[in-house]
Amino acid sequence: MPPHFALMFISSIAGSLVQAVCGFGYGPVNMSVMPYLLPYLQAVTLSGLCGSTTSLMVVLTSWRHVNLRILLPCAVTGVLTGMAAVQISAGARDALMMHCLGAGLIVLGIYSLFFKGKIRIRPTPLNGAIAGVIAGLCSGLFAVAGPPMAIYLLDAVTDNDEYRATLDAYFCCTTVGTTFMRWRNGAFTATVVHAYLPLIAALVIGTWIGTKIFHRLNAKLLRTAVYSYLIVSGTLMLFK
To answer: Given CA atoms 153, 159, 161, 162 in this order, what sign does their dihedral have?
Structure first.
């Protein structure tokens, strides 16, 4: 069992819980903790694996709602740019990647607190491809692809089921490419493999709790607390 496994387990429960309540959020929450526990490349690999596992659970139960017409241009560009981003990050220093991730978490927190739902993008194939590129870069560098795709899909799909299924299908597609590139770059160490298998239990627990409390919890208050935490965490990473 890797060092600090208890913290990994707790952060995975928290990330999957937030995703169940808010629609996305596993990557940002988990990556605010994981780089302190593992070398950056291993941290982003483990977080990507766990996040994609959560997405796969959703897709397997809601595949009928996946909008392939909307998904295709996003997924094609997302896979390609995600693979390129993994190659770039493999040669970067851990400190540099921590600082970049910190800046990204700050931007995500500010957007989610003050601008979520206010940015509208027309659902065209070109805009979908652009959204896929941005999300692919975020996925490859930081295992945080949710916000760019969420912004685009809010206007591109017709209902909540279609939104969630298509978003998670995108995550599943891009993870194939990023996981392959991380494997080629030697990120699949024994530590990553030994941590991933027991963390599946944390993903199940977090998703189950999030589903149970969804209709009982003040989701707006939870989002405010979580994304305020991301701003603080990102600031600490930025100046680490």
So the answer is: negative
